[in-house]
Specification:
707 residues; alpha/beta; Nucleotidyltransferase, domain 5; 8-stranded mixed sheet; 5-stranded mixed sheet; 24 helices
């Protein structure tokens, strides 16, 4: 087992599936290298852009034909994960598929058949760890999805590991979480102490474990609104239009002016036939007025207070509860409108003005602007068509539904704990994390996704507890002891020892992986030297893994025919040490800038080409390059002897035992029969201590034969 632990999770949403691969240090290795502050922190879970792959449609599409989902949908995701996770660690790597709102809408019998087929296919076609279908392949409730999202947001913002840096007052140091997809919306937050005591039975008890084995506990409220995602809300909106004024042509203020569509949103050129048609008027204020009833604010509330649809939610103290919104909250504010790329904080007035002007624009002019990439290359006619309704729905949910203050607009805001002067001042200081609401996609280079929260919880569960009295990692009802509904993280907390071979090999492989994004010749030369040494010293299976890493390096570093790139800040910290480190950020003006408010890449299908490279690596042997050879007789000084030669380069080379045997050639576990031609040519097979008159005097080693 190497120093890394791996996890694979498939987010099976309503409109598509996305696979995420994560890794974190084995707890034994992490504790060995940890600084004092790190020991009090959660495991550092990492991912990379190429570790993610997505595709459409959602798994619910196979609800009527579950037997087809494996070859038609799952296999590419499994292949992608297998191209990332090292072969010798696949059996120890858990795989999860967690379905959300789309599958929740299926009939129970169809849900069961679909999940059963998914689990059977994954077990039959991979060796990933999948011991319990009920735990690993499931439809998760919206409350659980919200809780995982809350973990992810606070993990990346630093609310867990550095609470003193995120003190919001009243002993509060965590952030609220808002998520909206196509079918449902979620909210999760830790109420202030007064509300937490008043509504203790409504909270979830979350227990995690820091690197030193100590338990940390949080009490979180989370709920979901099924049918309040943007797609389901749009369907309810169109139904309301039909009910209010059924006609062949119906005016729709939530469509851009002049756009005509079917009831399902398909553009039409002419109004003909018997099917009803929606005709856009682009009147955004009227659109806001007509989306408000969809909030169902007048529904009976059995347990006060309530927000939407009669759903109980403890009172939100906006003085200490600051929310981040992901998914549609991000897409709707950033896919078309780039205001927030310049203004870090969400600004209700500026956002509404942008939407209002856009929707009033004639559809022909919008189409022309899209063709010219006026709003960026990722804005399609479909996105432009839907943005007016989506923006109206977002504004209605945020401000009229949840009650997020319209900073600088509303007078006499009566939200508990809300201090208008404090919030306006926070804007002036550009402290984004102090805003009542901020839409985000990534924090410090890492996507804020509920899948990350699930994997952080799993990784925390792999840390051995510091005492026998420590409770299990997971979550359940907020009661004393271990509640009956407690869901454990499902982790194996047995420590895994790290051997010298594994540690050195993993370090070299990490360096090879970092070279994917490097083009500096000196760095590549340095990498080649290290990988060559690794080839000489390691076992055959290690050499093959090195080779695959190098193959991927050069495939990504410079594609055929592409121009050579100059250095890009090689001596900057990020460039020198390889890719985003995903360190949690602190709450100050400088850290606020770490929110990634750049171009949206959520709709890109980030296919990894490492699968092809891996197949090439497995199909080919690895021949040793030619090299000049010095005299390595036993009496001579050896460059690689401990304490000899130049200083260590930071990979522990000085501590490696002398890998050159008396014959002057490394011969590990390969059979003499396999290497016989090369060994005879080099005289490496002799074990006599008698020096050969010709041994090691040739200035050149010929390569080993490819096996």
């Amino acid at each position: 087992m190497g120093k890394w632990r791996w996890g694979v999770i498939l987010d099976a949403g309503s409109s598509g599936t996305r696979v995420h691969v994560y890794r974190w240090l084995n707890s034994a290795k992490a504790q060995q290298d940890a600084k004092p502050h790190d020991l009090k922190s959660l495991p550092k879970v990492e991912t990379k852009k190429r570790y993610t792959k997505k595709n459409s449609p959602g798994v619910s599409h196979w609800g009527d034909n579950p037997a087809d989902i494996g070859p038609e949908h799952l296999q590419p995701f499994l292949d992608h994960a297998l191209s990332i996770v090292p072969t010798d660690q696949v059996k120890d790597t858990p795989i999860f598929l967690m379905a959300t709102a789309g599958v929740r809408l299926l009939e129970p019998i169809k849900q069961k058949a679909l999940l059963s087929e998914i689990c059977a296919y994954a077990q039959a076609h991979t060796n990933f760890s999948l011991p319990d279908c009920g735990v690993h392949i499931q439809v998760i409730p919206g409350e659980t999805e919200g809780l995982y999202g809350w973990i992810a947001a606070n993990y990346l913002l630093g609310g867990f590991d550095s609470p003193e840096q995120h003190a919001h007052g009243k002993g509060h140091h965590t952030y609220g979480f808002l998520d909206m997809g196509g079918a449902s919306a979620q909210i999760a937050f830790a109420p202030n102490s007064t509300e937490a005591e008043k509504h203790a039975n409504d909270l979830k008890l979350l227990r995690m474990r820091t690197l030193n084995g100590e338990s940390t506990e949080y009490k979180v409220f989370t709920t979901t609104w099924l049918g309040f995602g943007v797609n389901q809300a749009r369907e309810r909106y169109v139904d309301a239009l039909l009910e209010a004024s059924p006609a062949h042509e119906m005016l729709d203020p939530c469509l851009p002016s002049g756009l005509k569509t079917t009831l399902k949103g398909e553009p039409v050129d002419t109004v003909s036939g018997k099917d009803a048609v929606l005709v856009g008027t682009g009147l955004f204020k009227e659109c806001l007025k007509q989306t408000y009833p969809l909030l169902d604010k007048d529904a009976p509330c059995a347990d006060q207070p309530c927000l939407l649809h009669g759903q109980h939610v403890p009172a939100i103290d906006f003085g200490v509860n600051h929310f981040v919104g992901v998914s549609e909250y991000w897409h709707t504010t950033h896919e078309v409108f780039e205001m927030s790329h310049k203004d870090k904080a969400y600004n209700f007035v500026a956002y509404q003005k942008l939407v209002q002007d856009f929707c009033a624009t004639e559809w022909d002019d919008i189409q022309s602007g899209v063709a010219k990439e006026k709003w960026g290359p990722k804005v399609t006619p479909k996105i432009a068509q839907e943005i007016c309704f989506k923006a109206s729905w977002l504004i209605s949910v945020l401000h009229d539904g949840i009650g997020i203050p319209r900073v600088g607009i509303e007078k006499g805001v009566d939200a508990p704990g809300y201090n208008k002067t404090k919030e306006v001042a926070a804007h002036g200081k550009d402290k984004t994390f102090l805003d009542p609401f901020q839409a985000v996609n990534k924090i410090d280079g890492m996507e804020v996704s509920w899948t990350l929260g699930k994997m952080v919880l799993y990784a925390a569960g792999q840390i051995p507890p510091s005492s026998h009295e420590a409770g299990p990692v997971g979550f359940g009802s907020n009661v004393v002891g271990i509640p009956a509904d407690f869901q454990e993280a499902g982790s194996n907390s047995n420590p895994v020892p790290i051997g010298d071979d594994d540690s050195w090999s993993e370090a070299a492989e990490d360096l090879a992986e970092k070279a994917h994004s490097r083009s500096t010749p000196g760095f590549l030369l340095f990498m080649l030297i290290l990988i060559f040494i690794g080839y000489i010293f390691r076992k055959r299976e290690r050499r093959m893994r090195f080779y695959r890493g190098v193959s991927n390096t050069f495939r990504r570093a410079r594609r055929p025919g592409s121009p050579r790139k100059g250095g890009r800040g090689f001596f900057s910290a990020g460039k020198l040490f390889g890719g985003p480190s995903y360190e949690r950020v602190l709450e100050d003006g400088e850290a606020a800038g770490e929110f990634e408010l750049g171009d949206v890449d959520s709709d890109e299908n980030e296919n990894s080409d490492s699968s092809e490279s891996s197949r090439l690596g497995r199909a080919s042997g690895l021949a040793t390059p030619r090299m000049n050879v010095m005299n390595f007789d036993t009496g001579s000084s050896n460059y690689f002897d401990s304490g000899q030669g130049p200083p260590s380069i930071g990979l522990g080379l000085n501590g490696i035992p002398n890998a050159m045997d008396r014959s002057g050639l490394v011969v590990r576990t390969e059979s003499r029969e396999r290497l016989a031609p090369s060994l005879q040519m080099l005289g490496a097979g002799r074990r006599s201590r008698t020096g050969s008159p010709t041994r090691m005097k040739s200035p050149l080693m010929t390569p080993l034969e490819e096996v």
